[in-house]
Amino acid sequence: KFPGVPRVERVSFNKGPLELVRHTHMASLGDAAHFEVDYVDMPAGFNDPDLSLEGGISGLTHALEAQGARVLTKEKVVRGSCEGRDTTLFLPHPPRKEGFVEGRAFGSGQRYYFLMFVGEEDGPQLREMARTFMESFAVTDGCTAQPAPTPAPSSPTVVSVVEGTHDAATGWRKIENTELGFGVLMPGAARHESEQAQVEPFPITHHTYINEDDAGVYAAEVFGEYPPNFHNTPGSYETMLDVTLYAMKRNFEPSGFTITPLRDLKAGTFPGREFTVTNEKLGAQGRTQIYVTAKYIYVFTAFTRGQAAASAANALERFFSSVRITTK
Fold first, then answer.
1. Which domains are delineated in the chain?
2. For residue range 294-326, what is the model confidence (pLDDT) as tens digits?
3. Of 13, 96, 113, 242, which residue is the least packed, with the fewest Cβ within 10 Å?
């Protein structure tokens, strides 16, 4: 429900090689409140609604944070057969009272809906206005499941052993790939697995380099190559960090791992983040670092099992301090 007849527009934008269209519906109550509902039809290949919704709501959040907004809540929301994401934020504009923003995203098939409410001055009446607007939204006949993902080529995962080169200072092996733009030290040779993670709308390859024994796991993962101009806004890099972390938690948490934010990082001018990774049941303690560059996403993960604290800390520090990324 809008407070008046909405203005309808079609706005074209590019995401790498893709040309997409955002269908916008907007209305305002003077300067007091702004109401907006958009939808975008995504091409084949965007077949993970969880990751797409996480990316959508994170993109909105980072765009507002760039304007000084503070996140209040970010959570899942269910309305009938539609599952989505919701976020609320304070938007400062001194000397006036803080504004209030709420954003919501849903997916149905290949169509994604985005709702946004912006109120100039927060208060009970404004919050009720936001609630009425958000709760009035419905997808005709309910949300539908996405079509089956485009099948990947039938070629099997390519597996090889990378011996690396001996590092005289540590006794470890230097595992590197100049084409993928990374290097890191591991206790020994690494098993390299290469598989096509995505076919459409553009191909993405997932490389994994891993050294594992009873004492611990040391891994470097690379996703790419992403096409030119895929990151079309400054916040796009932060959004991909959010999405990569979300995917990692989805894989690790069912096995009892806890992933906790530690600090922000940089690879040249590109953003990264570091997290602690623990599993009490396995006696595992470690860290992970995620970096997003123009072409690749890098994930470096290491954890030890059953080692003395000092020995474990030294091994982890040796691994992470050796990480090198070439951001060309």
1. 7-136 (3.40.1000.10), 158-325 (3.40.1000.10)
2. 999 999 999 998 877 788 899 999 999 999 999
3. 96
